[in-house]
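Methods — Computational structure assignment.
A single polypeptide chain was analysed. Its primary sequence is given first, followed by the predicted tertiary structure written as structure tokens.
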Amino acid sequence: MKTTAMARRTECVQCAGPLPLMARADARFCGATCRKRSSRARLAARQERVAAERQARIPVELTSRPRWVRHKDKVPMRTDGRFASVNDPSSWADFAAACASRTGDGVGFVLTAGDRMVVVDLDHAVEDGRVLPWAQRIVDQLPPTYMERGRSGSGLHLWFRGAVAHGRRIRRGELAFEVYSDRRYIIVGDRVPGTPLELAELPDAAGLIASL
């Protein structure tokens, strides 16, 4: 039985230059430099794909703003690994840069008063994959909006357009939630399936939240 030998490659797949005369038959690169460049290019392409997939699951109202940071152990970090601050816009990045960074454990979004965004953070609202009754009652009282799971997997973040004068923490029995609109960063998790990919308007945010 005859076998057909594969044609030997003569050019580097990275720079298109000639391969060394003594290169192995399966060689693809002319040297270590091109091998590293190709590896970096593949990594960058993979990161871009991941960022694009994630962007498709996060409202453009967030991804279009340069309010992004990384986080480690719930501490906001710059993309270069230094500490970030919710009071220092120079320590934030755009969405693509934040996703491309390998610092820390993930990405977060900094809330600022000028953006008029409100986040309702329901603590320990999910158990065994189900939204607990007290949390579901709050979700049902608020307009349908972008909602994502917190980093722990047991919390829910509901995002709205609106504002509150001050952040609040509310504890009443099993009910436990926080509300933020300024000088706070929110770790952004996975979108809850079926929820809108946009922020609903919450015109009387303070009054409505007080009534929950």
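Note: Residues 119 and 159 are 5 Å apart (CA to CA).
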